[in-house]
Amino acid sequence: SLQADEERVLQGLRRRQRALRGAALVLWTRAVLAGRAYRARASEFLKAVNAVVRRHTNRHKEWAIERWWEHLESGRAAEEAELLSDCLHAWSRGCAEQRSKREVLLLCEHYCNTRIVRSAFQSWCLGMARLAELSIQVLHFAASRATVNVQSIALAWQQWTERRRNCKKAAELVRQRRRSALLASWRVVLLRGL
Q1: CB 2 within 8 A of CB 151
Q2: Whole-model pTM above 0.85?
Q3: Interacting residues of 16 by C-beta distance below 8 A, sequence separation 6+
Q4: How far apart are CA 177 and CA 171, in angstroms?
Q5: pLDDT tens across 91-136, in order?
Q6: How far apart are CA 59 and CA 135, in angstroms?
Q7: Structure confidence by residue, pLDDT tens digits, 21-67
């Protein structure tokens, strides 16, 4: 009976460990899929940002050209040629600077996001490992408590059965004494009557 209870407790521990392993595998799979989805969304985001940067650059070009034409119309012919040269150089430098700044910014954001995702995944892995250890410790504690309870119940049962046997023996002994006393008193009565 005690061995069967211990076997049931061990089977329960094994089932619990299998369930925890399955849950950890499911969570890890979800995290991998979420990482893939994040990478896909990040590339879509970069495409969208590049489109916005292109539109902004085109608007900026249009704005620069409009300003240039306004200034060209209001100035003299000699100043216009010089101004045109200066504007084109400034505009090309500004566009190149803006493009390179945006590329550096996107590269830095990508690096930062990658580090954050990596650190979050490592933290998640550590948390899952700690949770698995904790659940195993809780299972061991529960199993030890169950074993102690089963042992105390078995000892109480054994003591009860032993006490019951002793009570039966004592009752039988009392009955035998009463019979012998009854028989002795009957003999005395019979002997007096003769």
Answers
A1: yes
A2: no
A3: 135, 139
A4: 10
A5: 888 888 888 888 888 888 888 888 888 888 899 889 888 988 988 8
A6: 60
A7: 788 888 887 777 777 777 777 677 667 777 777 887 888 788 877 87
Give 94-102 contacts, CB < 8 A, sequence gap 24+: 94/60, 94/64, 95/57, 95/60, 95/61, 98/57, 98/60, 99/53, 99/57, 102/53
Spatial distance between the Cα atoms of 55 and 111, rounded to a whole number of angstroms: 25
Distance from C-alpha of 61 to C-alpha of 73, rounded to nearest angstrom: 18
For the residues of 46-61, what is the DSSP string, one character each? HHHHHHHHHHHHHHHH
CA dihedral 104→105→110→114, nearest 10 degrees, is 100
- 6 with 150: CB under 8 angstroms? yes
DSSP 13: H
**CA–CA gap between residue 46 and residue 42 (Å, rounded):** 6
- 124: amino acid identity, one letter: W
Tokens at 114, concatenated = 């990658």
Judge whether 102 and 12 are in contact, CB under 8 Å: no
Task: Fill in the amino acid letter for 86.
Answer: D
Q: Are 161 and 1 in contact (CB under 8 A)?
A: no
Give the 3-state secondary structure of residue 75.
Answer: coil
